[in-house]
């Protein structure tokens, strides 16, 4: 069972995330700060002026969930990542 999270929920938890979605039938994992800003390549948030560590995925839609679940199960780097479904929009 998946947990729904809004951007406001993630802000309250101060939880940076990968926003996962499909683009041209390929998985995109866009690094985001808990404030919602897209992170720089070194996971630095220009808006918050801090570097962050990411430990969760937020899927934009249900069709991405099985792909990200498979990624988490199959990749040791993501073994302890949490998985959420986006409630609302960015």
Quick overview of this protein structure:
By secondary structure, the protein is of the alpha/beta class.
Our Rg estimate from Cα atoms comes to 12 Å
Largest sheet: 5 strands, mixed
Q: Quote the beta fraction.
A: 25-35%
| Count of discrete alpha- or pi-helical segments spanning 4 or more residues | 2
Order of helices and strands: EHEEEEEHE
Q: What is the β-strand count?
A: 7
Helix content: 10-25%
- Strands across the major sheet, in which order? 1-7-6-2-3
Distance between the termini: 23 Å
From the spread of the alpha carbons, the general shape counts as globular
Number of domains: 1
State the secondary-structure class.
Answer: alpha/beta
Low-pLDDT residue intervals, each spanning 5 or more residues: none
User: Average pLDDT across residues?
Assistant: 94
Question: What does this molecule look like?
Answer:
- The chain has one domain (3-86).
- It is globular, with a radius of gyration of 12 Å.
- It has helices spanning 7-13, 65-74, and strands at 3-5, 17-23, 26-32, 44-45, 50-51, 56-59, 82-86.
- The chain is of the alpha/beta class.
- The model has no long low-confidence stretch (mean pLDDT 94).
- The strands form 2 sheets. It has a 5-stranded mixed sheet with strand order 1-7-6-2-3. It has a two-stranded antiparallel sheet with strand order 4-5.
- The protein starts with a strand and ends with a strand.
Topology:
Layout: E1 3-5, H1 7-13, E2 17-23, E3 26-32, E4 44-45, E5 50-51, E6 56-59, H2 65-74, E7 82-86
Name a few traits of the molecule.
90 residues, single chain, five-stranded mixed sheet, 19% helix, 2 helices, alpha/beta
């Amino acid at each position: 069972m998946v947990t729904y999270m809004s951007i406001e929920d993630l802000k309250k938890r101060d939880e940076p995330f990968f926003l996962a979605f499909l683009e041209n039938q390929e998985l995109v994992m866009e690094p985001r700060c808990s404030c919602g800003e897209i992170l720089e390549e070194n996971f630095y948030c220009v808006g918050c002026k801090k570097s962050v560590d990411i430990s969760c995925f937020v899927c934009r839609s249900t069709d991405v969930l099985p792909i990200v679940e498979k990624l988490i199960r199959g990749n040791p780097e993501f073994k302890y990542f949490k998985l959420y479904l986006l409630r609302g929009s960015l």
